[in-house]
Amino acid sequence: MVIPFEEEYRKKFYELERQIFDSNFWSEGKMQRTFEEKFGDYVRLGARAVASGGAALLAILEYIDVRGKDVIVPANTFWADARAVQMAGGNVIFADCNKEDLCLSLEDMKKKVTDETKAVIVVHIGGHIAFEIEEIANYCKERGIALVEDCAHVHGGWWNGKTGGHYGIAGAYSFYATKTMPLGDGGMVVSKDPELLKWVEKYRNYGKEVIDGHVYYKLENGFNCRINEFTAALGIVQMERLPMILEWKKSLAEKYDQIFENRVKLPDGMVSGYYKYIVFDTPLTQETGQVFGPGDLGDVIAKVEAAVPNSHWVTQHHKCAPIYFGYEHADKSVDELRETLLK
Ligand SMILES: Cc1ncc(COP(=O)(O)O)c(C=O)c1O
Questions:
Q1: Looking at the structure, do residues 56 and 103 belong to the same domain, yes or no?
Q2: Beta strands 91-95 and 70-74, pairing class
């Protein structure tokens, strides 16, 4: 296996690398700003690049200031969410997911909300927007609870003109190696709130602020969450490739829809970016890793299994048909794929 990256785009990346050497900026330069502009235009929000999806979550949670407060986190997700809450000094309160979309359950979230709830994290699992996102957003807004969107999976997911990051105070994207738009590592905070974005600019660089040409550091906020110019340059090129990657995934998903009956079914108007193609109780001969499995959830499930029965069910019953860009059987017909994938 090689990284699928067409020659034409490799050349574009090499040219940007050349420009970086000539610019004398290893970081905090033109590539970062251009990547942010392009990503922001794509999601129709302001965007600030950081080192990882986890760093993006942490920056948002520190902005909200969850220290000593409760933050509701879906049990059916990667550790990054709970860990970011802990690092920001908050208390993790796990809530269950729905079996239909694998995302945070509105009903269970409401049960977990108390006067101590400062924030809720919703994770758009697998490439689609959480089906109950509007209701979750309204509920949080009415109660002054900050809604944070974990957008690590949702590149290319749209619903009624909105993508991840439009519903809460901010969204955290990841560009980790396995993601729909991989950079190896990297992340992006997206938001409509200019103050939050300004804050992230400082936060990602140890609280650095330049006032009248003088550099100031504020000790209370920030760490090194910077992205470097080379990663940002790759981000610029990946933005150009993203429509092609999403189109490729969509056409494979359309074939899978004809093969798999027991699967995540998208509501009207939902466009998934198909980070994952999720099926239930289906024997597969080839599969990619589960969205989240007992390995991810082990400790949580062991401690709170009774409290999150759907999350437990999901880890036991779902699998993912291969839909990573470059999957070697993607060009096969529906019948051939059925033959290849079903036991
Ligand atoms: C749902 C979710 N949130 C956050 C992250 C963390 O992103 P990163 O690895 O870029 O820190 C990941 C995966 O990596 C993820 O799957």
A1: yes
A2: parallel
Same structural domain for residues 173 and 260? no
pLDDT range class, residue 245, cuts 50, 70, 90: very high
- With 90 as the cut, is the pLDDT of residue 341 above it? yes
Question: Residue of the nearest CA to atom 7 in ligand 1?
Answer: 53
Q: Report which ligand 1 atom has the smallest distance to the Cα of 55.
A: 11
Domain count, the chain: 2
- What pLDDT was estimated at residue 304? 56
Max distance between CA atoms of the chain, in angstroms, equals 67
Query: Which domain, by its residues, includes 331?
Result: 242-341
186 Cβ closer than 6 Å to some ligand 1 atom: no
Q: What is the pLDDT of residue 240?
A: 98
CA-nearest of 316, 180, 343, 323 to 256 is 323
123 within ligand 1 shell (Cβ under 6 A): yes
Cβ of 46 below 6 Å from ligand 1: no
Please indicate, yes or no, whether residues 67 and 169 belong to a single structural domain of this protein.
yes
Tell me the per-residue pLDDT of 148-176, one tens digit each, with 9 for 90 and over: 999 999 999 999 999 999 999 999 999 99
How much distance in Å is there from the Cα of 151 to the middle of ligand 1? 9
Query: Is 184 found in the same domain as 271?
Result: no
Are residues 223 and 177 part of one domain?
Answer: yes
Pairwise CA distance, residues 179 & 182, whole Å: 5
